Amino acid sequence: MKTKICFLILSDFMILKLCQLVTTLQSSLQNKIHDEITVTCIILLSLIFNKSPTMQVLLLATVLFCVEDFVRAEPKQKCTERCDVSTCPSPSCPMGYVPDRCNCCLVCAQGEGEPCGRKDDLPCGDGLDCKHPAGKRLAKGFCQCKLVHKVCGSDGNTYGNVCQLKAQSRKALQQGLPAINSVQKGPCKINQNKGTSHPTSPRYKFNFIADVVEKIAPAVVHIELFLRHPLFGRNVPLSSGSGFVMSETGLIVTNAHVVSSTTPMSGHQQLKVQMHSGDIYEATIKDIDKKSDIATIKVNSLKKLSVLLLGHSADLRPGEFVVAIGSPFALQNTVTTGIVSTAQRDGKELGIRDSDMGYVQTDAIINYGNSGGPLVNLDGEVIGINTLKVAAGISFAIPSDRITRFLNESMDKQSKEVRSLKKRFIGIRMLTITSALVEELKQQNPDFPEVTSGIYVHEVVPHSPAQKGGIRDGDIIVKLNGRPLLTTADLQGALTEETTLLLEVRRGNDDLLFNIQPDVIMQ
């Protein structure tokens, strides 16, 4: 009897609770959210009233515990037919970004301890796995870090795991602060003598050379020149050296002697460039100046490359610290340090005839293979290209100001080459106005206008810029851009400039103005 009373009291309570859920279920069905759950619950409700009191209580409990989470959940996000990224929010996400459910905007990934694994849950963030209860793969899971051990951060703080460190590092970057890196596995050790953590010890505070190397190394490359032998079909190494990336699109500066060979051998030469990451690319020579021993080569990379900036070698002072980095004997990222011995050493003093260039002298060791690599100051700016070693402690670099001059001249030369490949035309066949031509034309047409100079339009090419602009056969062009037009050469000269042409045309007794935009064709 007591058991029946308990069941009745419990069932009455659950029925009241169920009534509240039914209202929510009806609303969810109208809004077409959680449709599968709603239909399942209605089927369960229809079965409840055909069972014994004990079974009714069990079925009611099943409905309550399995459905409440879903009916309290937010409605599903409706996806628009077109993605308008301008409406996307700009969240600050400690655990990284993932596409939203509509694959339109970037939203925050689930953080540590947040739910995951269900149909509408977002993926876990960087370094997190979705962990489900044992034996319940379809149940709600929670994001947990793959690595659970503590780590010491470069800011001197101990983090519970790598994921917490990465989240804090992202927050720091979003606030414009330095990134936080993992220094060691386990908690930060306290220096018993100093009472400070090692990231702030003298080893970390005063290793400025290491800071420079860490900054510049990703942009330094190893270069090898091969010759493909025509008989044996294998690559014969000719030379090797270093270089540094100057643009994110893959422009690399090096020495001319690194990428060219005077070896009298027949065959196809091939350049290979190995990045700091280990990626290898084929390269092509863009420009080369053997007299100044500077060259630029180009690689095609889909990745955004690290670059170095050029400093001003004219500002160098004797005694400044410098760092040389390169690949001597194919040993990548070999670092040597020294000071500037002389900021401007005349090339003629080094026995280089016809030299019009000064060199930066340094006691940093430059060996075979360092050639073409950067010589940088403590700000990480390139102040020279490592070029020449005379003796131990006496090495030379091409100053960065000369590199800047070479790059500017190279860009001007390439621009002229591009312009020479372009031909602009307006689409007319023309004759220079002369007294003899005017006399002949008047015999054909007594109404031909009185003109003493200009260009006679003999024929307009169909669908040409001239025809589209309004020029007709028989027109006389008397002025170009407000100036009298004397010969056809004047008009042809104007076509070399990338500007719109303002033509004043005599048509009968009328003077008309036309703006003509020439078409461009590549030769």
UniProtKB/TrEMBL annotation:
GO terms for biological process: proteolysis. Residues 454-504 form the PDZ domain. Pfam families: IGFBP, Kazal_2, PDZ_6, Trypsin_2. Residues 125-190 form the Kazal-like domain. InterPro entries: Growth_fac_rcpt_cys_sf, IGFBP-like, Kazal_dom, Kazal_dom_sf, PDZ, PDZ_6, PDZ_sf, Peptidase_S1_PA. Transmembrane segments: none annotated. SUPFAM superfamilies: Growth factor receptor domain, Kazal-type serine protease inhibitors, PDZ domain-like, Trypsin-like serine proteases. Residues 75-146 form the IGFBP N-terminal domain. Belongs to the peptidase S1C family. This is Serine protease HTRA3. GO terms for molecular function: serine-type endopeptidase activity. It comes from Oncorhynchus mykiss (Rainbow trout). The keyword Cell wall biogenesis/degradation does not apply. PANTHER family: SERINE PROTEASE FAMILY S1C HTRA-RELATED, SERINE PROTEASE HTRA3. Its main location: secreted. GO terms for cellular component: extracellular region. The keyword Metal-binding does not apply. Keywords: Disulfide bond, Hydrolase, Protease, Secreted, Serine protease, Signal. It is found in: Secreted. PROSITE patterns: IGFBP_N_2 (PS51323), KAZAL_2 (PS51465), PDZ (PS50106).
